[in-house]
Specification:
Helix content: over 70%
Shape: elongated
Order of helices and strands: HHHH
Strand content: under 5%
Number of strands: 0
Distance between the termini: 49 Å
Number of helices: 4
Radius of gyration: 13 Å
Structural class: mainly alpha
Oligomer: single chain
Largest sheet: none
């Protein structure tokens, strides 16, 4: 049971990190995203785990329901991603 919990917790941390990098999954996951969004991913999107693209989509759909800290990370990462995409063009 403890191993299952640890595995689930690890998957949630990865999924939460991916959420914060909505449009740039190739970038390294930030520790801030893991810290701020893991609880929200577990609460709102646990049925989608371990499918990271589905968790990401779920979190975006539920953005109005995530914690303020997670929302701030999501907003900040989305803005940074748009800036990188614009600079690449």
């Amino acid at each position: 049971m403890a191993t299952l919990f640890k595995t689930t917790a690890s998957l949630l941390a990865v999924a939460a990190s991916a959420i914060a990098l909505q449009t740039s999954p190739s970038l390294a996951f930030s520790s801030e995203a893991q810290q701020m969004c893991t609880g929200d991913a577990m609460r709102l999107c646990s049925s989608e785990i371990p499918d990271i693209p589905r968790v990401r989509a779920c979190m975006v759909r539920n953005k109005a329901n995530v914690s303020p800290g997670c929302r701030a990370v999501m907003d900040r990462e989305a803005t940074a991603s748009r800036k990188r995409e614009a600079a690449a063009q």
